[in-house]
Design goal:
175 residues, SH3 type barrels, SlpA_C_lactobacillus, 16 strands, five-stranded antiparallel sheet, 2 domains
Length: 175
Amino acid sequence: MTYKAVSTSGAVTTMVRNVTVLPKESTTDWTMNDMKAVGYINYTPGYGIMVYTAPATGAKGQRLAHGTSWKISQKAVNANGDTFYKVGTNQWINGKYVTFSPINTITPLKGEVKIVYKKGYGVNLWKSAGTTGGFYTGRKLKHGTSWKTSGKQNGFYKVGKDQWIQGDYASYKSY
């Protein structure tokens, strides 16, 4: 396409635009292999991953929750190395959120953690055992304070219902 613009003083500017339309990637671009395995969704606690009707296409609006396990019957890989797994009829999930070993579970503890940070400051209190996905509660626990803990997961200590602190800023003492 060519465009011309003329200013009020008569100066002419010409612009040329080239548009290239690429073909849509189809399922024929995927290498499919049968497999039998159990995969675990490894995403963000409290959230899930999208289910597709085919590898990378046709989002169904259905999600599979973090930490759940699914039987996998097929693997699809494209030229870019993207991987999708078939978990049911017309149900495919993105392989970057799948692991083949169980997701870290909560290790039960009986004890307390003491906040070890900077005097006069505190550490963030998280809604789940992880800092991704916006789970910050808006509260902080002050340096030097001690809290009962009932478990540890992914390097975080559980100090209450939906209340977790990063283990890097805590000293644990068992009862």
